[in-house]
Give the backbone structure.
Amino acid sequence: MKKVLVTGGTRGIGRDIAREFLKRGFFVCAAYSSDEESAAESAAEGIDVFRADVSDEAQVKALFGHVGNVDILVNNAGISLFKQIQDVSFGEWNRLFAVNVGGAFLCAREASRAMIEKKSGLIVNISSVWGEVGGSCESVYSASKAALLGFTKALAKELGPSGIRVNSVSPGVIDTRMNARLSDGDMEALREEIPLERIGRGEDVAKAVWFLYENDYVTGIDLPVNGGFSIV
């Protein structure tokens, strides 16, 4: 049975990705940072859950000590920040990069060791439409997600000769807790900017990750899942 690790895998987009692979017969481990209620719900569905802060090297090592070698790594764990640049502290900048970029680095480093030995594997980094085009009042978040895109391309070149594929998925406006701060009016205004005229669902992103798993001649790409929101 193939093994999948999804970070931030007990809530939102991550949970839908975990469910997608679970229903297809994979062993799925979901890492989470704090939400015990969501973790318990995921465990009840048959997902193996493990608490770990992906920005902490020791906790990431403990995570991989628990789950072992994985065939697929989905770096989904992330945090957001909605502030104007003049109000952002350096500590907030560092924390966002530690989770969104540092976590992806630490998990990819651990996962790739066994993948290199097996000469196979898939890493998918979950970026964002703001990593592609930038978001006003989300400059730090946008920068961290843009960094993931560069990391994806470089790692695809580095690990390709070892039979490992590395891709990213960039969701647009998705109906998750991360967007709960937005009012109904804000969400409607965003919906009107989307050519497909609907807000995205976590399942849309999960299907994109599955697509990248199935297509074994695809590496180093970013797959936008945003209903056309980023069309220029």
Observations:
- The mean pLDDT is 95.
- DSSP finds eight helices and seven strands in the chain.
- The CA atoms of residues 136 and 219 lie 30 Å apart.
